[in-house]
Design a protein that fits this description.
4-stranded antiparallel β-sheet, 16 strands, single chain, mainly beta
């Protein structure tokens, strides 16, 4: 039940239970409700000192609005973990869920006056709240682990994909490309709600080409 040892921003992490929580409001006025679903895995890697991006890939099957905030990781019986801190430079977009950590591994003074940071494992907790007509009707707590590694002689690929509006019932075909400044081979994959819909209404994504420093794919819905 406990967390990994030596989590940088959780003192004595091996003695701290891992805790998650979901809130689902049952109310005749609100109507039926389903919790948000997160499609991105809660494990990721960051390079020391290089800006890091992550999105939980959350969607709501009922079409309710979602908001995002960084909160404290929790431990025994759901209590906030003593001396936990959100890493310096980490923020989340409240509307779209983009987690941006500007300088992974930057040194921080914790509540005990210790200078901590550098390489290793970090935990961040994201509270995803669902809203209907301005009323809070549920939430999901994600606690994710990010491993900060050093010696990264690499830059992330750049994805070219545009936001698109389309009339319901029409077909959408979009070509997506990614380029790599280090001319590495790229694999393009895609996740999200459109792929999880019933057969016949779901989307597909196919990688159509992969070359040194370039990959192309086709999204059809």
């Amino acid at each position: 039940p406990n967390r990994n040892a030596d989590v940088v921003n959780i003192p004595n992490s091996i003695d701290q239970p891992f805790y998650l929580e979901s809130l689902l409001v049952i109310d005749n006025v609100v109507g039926s409700n389903t919790s948000p679903i997160l499609t991105s895995p809660p494990l990721d890697k960051a390079c020391l000192g290089i800006c890091f991006f992550h999105n939980p890939g959350a969607y709501d099957p009922d079409g309710d609005s979602l908001s995002y905030e960084l909160v404290q990781s929790r431990g025994n019986f759901g209590s906030p973990i003593y001396c936990f801190f959100t890493p310096s430079g980490a923020n989340i977009n409240a509307t779209n869920g983009d987690l941006i950590w500007t300088c992974p591994g930057a040194n921080t003074i914790n509540c005990e006056g210790q200078n901590v940071g550098g390489l290793g494992e970090y935990n961040m907790a994201i509270l995803i709240t669902e809203w209907r007509n301005g009323i809070k009707i549920g939430s999901v707590l994600r606690d994710m682990q990010i491993r900060v590694i050093g010696g990264c002689q690499n830059d992330p690929p750049v994805i070219s994909a545009r936001d698109t509006c389309i009339i319901a019932g029409e077909s959408l075909v979009m070509n997506i490309s990614a380029s790599d400044p280090n001319l590495n081979t790229i694999t393009l994959t895609s996740t999200g709600e459109p792929y999880l819909l019933p057969a016949g209404n779901n989307a597909t994504f196919t990688q159509t080409g992969s070359f040194a420093g370039l990959a192309e794919g086709r999204f059809e819905w």
